[in-house]
Design brief:
alpha/beta, elongated, 5-stranded parallel beta sheet, 14 helices
Length: 290
């Protein structure tokens, strides 16, 4: 069986890893957890109606699904790993708008366009204090980002912005059917976990959205001390679930962090907004009808 799984992993890489220079399906850099897409259409894209297959059989996806079923049966994976920001949830308002609106009473004068440009520059700079951006609650990193983006270093301003992003006002679920799908998956024996590059506020965010009990495990980079695409965080999620990496499929919106990172860990992986467009479609591909 080990030899068969090795062949399967190679087959997966060959059939499902199309060459692309894109980082996200909407073509933007990945900036989270304060991130809101540079394009206002990205959140809508995350819940867009399912499209007709565009030559999937030619690409080998149909053959690959049949191949997995020939090995594992009708349910092709024992676990689903889900990315958080950009896949499971998304910011409800543009980041620059929130920074400016909260900052007005603290003297922030930059326009939203200026804040966004400065944010991009700050986020793109090497973070020299640690090999990880998000350490524990991520405060030092986000203090630098907020201060550079807005020109305001007022500690009260930072705390207000920082705490805002732990509330249900700041975030919404990308797919309104997510709860129903995850319940169906777990009822069918498929374990579900979140795997995210995030600081420790992620657990507060999940509680605020009343979805923390949807998952069997949560692997947060700030706690695992490894950020995607490092395979360590995917392996930790599999360990928490008690399954082997080849028995899991990961779904996320970032080609490098989610697709390639998961595959380097030995997991299957699908790109949100490209391979799959809804969690109902994810469940169908796993073999669970919702």
């Amino acid at each position: 069986m080990a030899a068969t799984r090795t062949k399967l992993c190679r087959f997966s890489t060959w059939t499902l890893r199309p060459g692309s220079n894109a980082i996200n399906f909407n073509g933007s850099m990945r900036l989270n957890p304060f991130y809101c897409s540079f394009s206002s259409s990205s959140s809508a894209a995350a819940v867009a109606p399912q499209r007709e297959p565009m030559g999937l059989e030619v690409l080998g996806v149909k053959d690959y699904e049949d191949y997995r079923r020939s090995l594992y049966g009708e349910i092709t994976h024992k676990a689903l790993l889900v990315d958080a920001a950009g896949t499971l949830l998304a910011p409800s308002q543009p980041m620059a708008q929130i920074y400016r609106e909260i900052g007005e009473k603290y003297g922030v004068e930059y326009s939203e366009a200026e804040i966004l440009n400065r944010y991009r520059r700050a986020y793109a700079q090497p973070w020299g204090r640690s090999r990880l951006r998000y350490v524990n609650d991520g405060r030092p990193f986000w203090q630098y980002i907020v201060s550079y983006s807005t020109g305001c270093s007022d500690s009260q301003y930072f705390e207000e912005v920082y705490n805002y992003y732990t509330t249900d006002k700041a975030w919404h679920l990308c797919d309104p059917e997510a709860e129903k799908v995850f319940k169906a998956l777990r009822k069918a024996g498929v374990k579900v976990a979140v795997v995210s590059n995030f600081d420790t506020r992620l657990r507060s965010v999940l509680r605020a959205l009343n979805c923390d009990n949807w998952f069997d495990a949560v692997a947060v980079s700030a706690e695992v001390e490894a950020e995607k695409p490092n395979p360590t965080i995917f392996l930790k999620a599999c360990e928490l679930l008690g399954i082997n990496p080849e028995d899991a499929v990961h779904v996320g919106d970032d080609r490098r962090n989610d697709l390639w990172g998961a595959r380097d860990a030995g997991c299957d992986a699908w790109l949100w907004g490209s391979d799959v467009y809804s969690f109902k479609e994810v469940a169908r591909r796993i073999g669970v009808q919702v």
